[in-house]
Every structure is written in C-alpha cells, then in structure tokens.
Design goal:
about 40% helix, 20 helices, ten-stranded mixed β-sheet, alpha/beta, two-stranded antiparallel ribbon, single chain
C-alpha cells in the first residue's frame, strides 16, 4: 500500500511539474541556437575534435520556455574547399551517447572522402550522456548499489521472476521520483526536432545523416516530420518503428516485439557453425569436439551451477548462466571477436567441476573485457526512452509467460531479451509529443537502407519492411554477421561514400560481402573499437 501511495503522489507531482499546453497559446518558433565551438579538453586524442553545448526547447509546445542542454562534438572536414556540409550521426541505443561515438570512431569508421567533405557531428540525445541525462537515483553510487544483484541479468526461475518484477517496480518508482520532468520530454520525436534545430544551427539547408540501430528509428521519425529537409539518409541495422512503438497492434512486450531474441539465436547458430568450419586451428572450441555440442554443454552446466574462474589479480569470479548469455549477446555484435568468445566457452568447458581446483582456472579474455566494460555504463534511466516511445502491455505479471514462449523460439536469448521494457510497465509518465505512427513518409530523395544477413540486435527480417516506409529506398544487404556494417565491409563503405558525397545511391537489392570471415586471422594493422561503437 505504501508503494502505491508513493506512486500516486509522484504522479500528482508530475502533473504539476509538466502541465499540458493550452489551446490559446500563441504559436512561436524555437530560436535557432548559436554554436560556439571550442576545445574538447587537453587529452591528445581529442585535439582533432571541437566541442560545444547548446540550449533547445524542453517542450516544443513552449518553444521559448524552459530549455534542455545538448552536448555536441564534431570532427571538422579535412578539405574545407570541398566541404559539402555536416554529417549528423547517431550510434543507437536507445541511450547511446553520440559525443563519445564520434570521438572514438569517426576517424576510422568513415572513409577519407567522407571525412574530407563533411564535418562529422555527434550529439548526446536529450536525456543521455551530457545532455541533461535521465537519472534514476540521486547519485551514481546509489544507483550502482541499488541495481547490483537486483536488476542485473535476467531471471530464470519463478522465484527470480517475482523478485525481478519487484525490483523493476522499485526502479521505476525511483526513476519517476528522480527525473519525472526529463522523462516527460524524452521522446524520439523531440530528439528529431532537436536534430532539425541543430541542422539549422550548422547552416545546412538539408540534413545528411547516418544512423545505426535505434538511430534508424530516429531517422524514420525525422523523415516523417521533415521530409523536405532530407538530403541523404544512411540507415544501417534497421529497427522497424512499428515493432518498436507497437503501432502495428502487437501488444506483447517491446523486448519481444523487436525480435532480438530470434536474431541473436540465429547469429549464435552461425557462431557455432563458423567455428566448426574454421576448425581447431582457428577456433578453440573446435578442439574439444563439435562446437554446438560443447557450447550447449557449457550452458547446460551453468544452468545448474556457476563456474569459478580466477582473475589476473588473484580474485575469483563465479560465472553464471546469465553472465554467459549476456556476454555472448554482446560478442555476437562483432564477428572479429568471435575467437575470443570461443576462447571463453573453451575455458569454461575444461574447467573442473565444483572442487577446490576450480579456483585455478584462468579467466578468459572475453570475460575480463566484459567486466571492464560494465564500469563504463551510465545511468540505466538513459535507456528507458521506449517508455515514452512505445505502447506497453499493461500486464507486467505476464512477462514470465512471454519470456518462456520466446525462449522456446530462441533458446537462451528469449528469456534474456523478453524482459526489456518491464520497467516501463510501472512508469506511467507519457510525453505528449511522442509519435507512434503511421510511419510511411514522403521523402523524395533516395535513401540508403542497410541490413546485415545475421544481425543479433536488429534482425535482417526487418530490413525490407523498413525500406518500404520510404518512397525511394535503396536496400543494400551485407552478407555476413554482426550488428551493423561499421568496420566490417569495404564494399559497404564504398556504397555509403558514393551516396553521401555524390548522392549516387546503389540499386535497390544490391549486396556486399564482408571483408573477412569471423575466424579468419586478424591483420595486425586492423583497427577496431570493441563493442562500444554501436548499441
């Protein structure tokens, strides 16, 4: 009863903090911000970049009212004489910050021709990173303490189901208490409006944009709102807006609607098949027998008991089933690190049963890297954009059944991905400016839509339906593995470069190959940003 009263009190407060616009308000246009570019700091790696912040309307129904800070960075065009304009980027998410993406990736992810002719711009979308982030606790330390062991991972038993639902209810109440005003203006629709204001601020008549994963949903939203302002859209790793928003009538959880579990399971099957093809010389798991048998044996063993490994500092780490599935999902994004994933499974496969000797098994590199990356995540609130962007089920207690059904279709990953969106069931804040469809748009320019055949996060099956939202979409299939084409296909890079610099779009239905197979030796000179580029 106390929790219910608290939720009601917070809702009442939210209603006071975020009043609705009155019909009699005089229409106004938002002011185009002036960008004062400056240094990004003393770090040598950041010297090529410029940074700034601008203010945009918090509520576009009140364009001269309260403002939200947006953090920006850009890599200036290397050949100003040939400069076309600004290339806006979004790395995905929801909740992916665009500033570190550009600062980490722009110099290697884009061809010299693109970097010569475009300022490459990244911005942290509202509610994310340094753009007035949505936070769920007063401090990062409090959030870390509250979430550890409560919301991390995913449940696998009825008792864990109940605890997980309860933990998400507590998290929702905390998010609602801490950031109700920011959640109420958190929609992708407002991010699209921000991006159009930024387009004007950099002086471009029309938008040139490349979006990955969730960034394709932002691209679709921009195309719907501002079809006449589009110069070029590259949309890589498509998230079908009707699945994301629930506008197609599907009332299952957003984590089920997105079909990520099916995409991950299909890609995981490919991991095991490619390991078998590569053989023991290139895939460690193949040294122990059929990779599918070995890997599934490890996962079956983990369901019963964790496997203990020793970290370099001598401390012990218990690897659980949830750990292994979560790590696998992340590593499926990048086929170049599949050998490390194979090393991980081999190390667990040869680990002794639960005895004192288990403590002597060294931790595989994949586990060490994964543990390090966990420290880099910011507030969980930044990833809750679908709470205002999509329709919820209204049935949080039915999630275990949906998860079980998904796990039948997609073993391991069905249980993991089906819980996405549970927190939103307890977050009744709505952004009145959110857009939930219909999604067909009137963009006249050709747009480039790219799908990878085996993508664990944005399944290939969404690529053609997404393309059909545009009057003149040119769909490019990359025959390969992983999430998006970043750093995977010189052929795709060439098509993107021709399109952005010359507006020369490939024929619809074109294909490209990846540069290498997952277990091919990696050239010593190959540069790679592991995992952090696209979410």
């Amino acid at each position: 009863m106390r929790t219910a009263n608290r939720v009601a009190a917070v809702l009442a407060a939210t209603a006071l903090v975020v009043p609705t616009a009155t019909a009699s308000a005089a229409p106004q246009q938002p002011l185009v911000p002036k960008i004062n570019w400056g240094s990004c700091g003393d770090t040598p790696a950041l010297k090529p970049f410029q940074c700034a912040t601008v203010e945009v309307p918090t509520d576009y129904d009140r364009p001269r009212g309260a403002t939200t800070t947006i953090a920006l960075t850009r890599l200036p065009a290397s050949d100003p004489a040939r400069r076309i304009g600004t290339l806006f980027t979004n790395p995905g998410g929801p909740g992916g910050p665009g500033v570190p993406f550009v600062q980490q990736a722009a110099q290697i992810a884009y061809t010299p021709e693109v970097r010569a002719q475009f300022d490459i711009l990244g911005f942290d979308p509202r509610g994310v990173g340094k753009s007035d982030p949505v936070t769920c606790y007063p401090t990062a330390a409090e959030e870390a303490a509250a979430i550890q062991g409560a919301v991390a991972g995913f449940p696998t038993t009825p008792a864990e189901d109940r605890a997980y639902i309860k933990a998400n209810l507590k998290l929702a109440v905390s998010c609602l208490t801490t950031s109700p005003d920011r959640l109420a203006h958190f929609s992708t629709a407002n991010v699209a409006r921000d991006m159009d204001l930024l387009r004007q601020a950099v002086g471009d008549k029309k938008l040139s944009y490349i979006g990955y994963s969730y960034g394709t949903d932002l691209g679709a939203t921009y195309a719907k709102f501002f079809p006449n302002n589009v110069r070029a859209l590259v949309l890589d790793g498509t998230l079908l807006p009707s699945w994301y928003s629930g506008s197609d009538g599907d009332r299952r959880p957003v984590g089920v609607r997105l079909r990520q579990s099916e995409g991950a399971a299909e890609t995981f099957t490919q991991f095991k098949a490619e390991c078998k093809k590569a053989g023991p010389a290139q895939c460690e798991v193949a040294k122990l027998g059929d990779p599918a048998t070995v890997v599934e044996g490890v996962l079956t063993r983990l369901k019963a008991n964790p496997i203990t490994v020793t970290l370099p500092d001598g401390t012990k780490e218990a690897v659980t089933y949830q750990d292994a599935v979560g790590l696998t999902f992340q590593y499926l994004y990048e086929p170049v690190i599949w050998p490390e994933l194979a090393d991980f499974y081999r190390a667990l496969a040869v680990a002794p049963k639960a005895t004192a000797k288990a403590a002597s098994v060294p931790a595989p590199k994949a586990l060490l890297d994964w543990n390090n990356r966990k420290e880099e995540y910011s507030s969980i609130g930044e990833s809750l954009q679908f709470c205002v962007d999509s329709k919820q089920t209204g049935r949080p207690l039915a999630y275990p059944a949906w998860a079980d059904q998904a796990n039948q279709r997609a073993p391991h990953f069905g249980r993991m991905r089906s819980w996405v969106g549970l927190t939103c069931e307890f977050l009744p804040v709505r952004d009145s400016d959110a857009f939930l469809g219909p999604w067909e748009n009137k963009v006249k320019s050709p747009v480039l839509v790219i799908g990878t055949r085996y993508d664990p996060a944005t399944p290939y099956q969404a690529t053609r339906p997404y393309s059909d939202l545009y009057p003149d979409a040119r769909m490019l299939t990359v025959e390969g593995w992983g999430h998006t084409t970043l750093l995977k296909s010189r052929c795709a890079d060439a098509r993107i470069t021709e399109y952005l610099t010359q507006l020369k779009a490939p024929a619809d239905g074109s294909t490209c190959q990846q540069d290498r197979k997952p277990f091919d030796p990696v050239p010593a000179t190959q540069k790679f940003i592991q995992g952090a580029v696209v979410r």
